[in-house]
Design goal:
Layout: E1 2-3, H1 8-12, H2 16-21, E2 25-26, E3 34-35, E4 38-43, E5 67-68, E6 76-77, E7 80-81, E8 93-102, E9 110-113, E10 117-118, E11 126-127, E12 131-136, E13 141-144, E14 148-149, E15 184-185, E16 195-199, H3 208-211, E17 220-227, E18 231-235, E19 241-243, E20 256-257, E21 259-262, H4 271-287
Parallel strand pairs: 1-13
Antiparallel strand pairs: 2-16, 3-21, 4-8, 5-6, 7-20, 8-17, 9-16, 9-21, 10-11, 12-13, 12-17, 14-15, 18-19
Length: 288
């Protein structure tokens, strides 16, 4: 499978400011007209480490329904984890399909639901596990949304910065948090549970795949999520290192997909249109 690598010129046209300013959509919003219906591929990075509660890719189908098993283990349910990839291991991915294709309509076109937690009110930032978002018409060639990450890793020998990742109580990244939602753009995974991160297909209009005609923004049949190893080895579209909560071989590690919702879809033919087509066919037969 192919996916897009951004050039400097395509980044300028990739719509990052629009993505950064878009408010997430509520799971109950009436603008959502459908959700993913098919699992095309599920390739977690550490399948043997994931808990059974987060190992079923079908949990990402349909409307958002994330929850928890409760005490004593508090494992998430209703979603699927991609796993955090150790060094030298491919990132986890999941690809979903839809009954009706997503189309590049007016405004935002689809939303990705994760289960990030916002602790900003308590001064602890946002617990977020990020992922790249890619779309495809044929299931083989994918175009990736541009991303920007301005989060920095704390320097123990330097002065603290407002952009520094907030490490957990042990000084590790198992439960590290982003100091601000505004430091990341173009990723899925930074908005709270039941709040979908919105994506506008027009932001991909200058990517190589769209310009070559291998990805048709009016006929998107597949959406792929690619987990990000948040230890800085993965870079955004501007070659900045990406940092987030990172815990290899964790039972619920990596991006947790709850659902993909659709706002703009290719409409089914109306009854009138079907009757018109049937009449045209009959007319042609009579002429023949």
């Amino acid at each position: 499978m192919q996916s897009h690598r951004f050039t400097a010129s395509s980044i300028l046209a990739a719509g990052l400011p629009a993505l950064a300013s878009a408010q997430p959509i509520d799971a109950a919003d009436s603008r959502l007209v459908g959700f993913a219906t098919t699992v095309v591929d599920f390739s977690p990075s550490t399948p043997d480490s994931l808990a059974a509660a987060v190992s079923s890719p079908s949990a990402a189908l349909g409307a958002p329904d994330a929850g928890s098993t409760g005490d004593p283990d508090f494992l998430p349910v209703g979603l699927v984890s991609l796993g955090d990839a150790p060094e030298g291991t491919p990132s986890g991915t999941i690809t979903l399909g839809f009954d009706a294709a997503i189309t590049n309509g007016t405004g935002v076109d689809f939303a990705v639901f994760e289960n990030a937690s916002d602790f900003s009110a308590f001064g602890s930032g946002i617990f977020a596990e990020l992922a790249f978002v890619e779309v495809s018409t044929d299931g083989s060639t994918f175009a990736r949304f541009a991303t920007s990450s301005q989060t920095t890793f704390p320097d123990p020998a330097g002065q603290p910065r407002a952009t520094d990742l907030m490490l957990d109580f042990s000084g590790g990244q198992d439960f590290a948090t982003l100091p601000s939602r505004g430091l990341v753009s173009g990723f899925a995974g930074a908005d709270p549970a039941f709040s979908g991160t919105l994506f506008d297909l027009s932001a991909l209009s200058s990517t190589a795949e769209v310009l070559a005609g291998t990805v048709d923004l009016d006929l998107i049949n597949f959406v792929r999520l690619v987990d990000i190893a948040g230890d800085g080895r993965t870079e955004d579209s501007f070659n900045n290192p990406i940092y987030d909560a990172f815990s290899p071989n964790n039972a619920t590690g990596g991006f947790d997909l709850d659902a993909i919702g659709v706002l703009n879809t290719v409409p089914e033919p109306t009854t009138a249109a079907l009757l018109s087509l049937a009449g045209l066919s009959l007319l042609r037969r009579r002429r023949a």
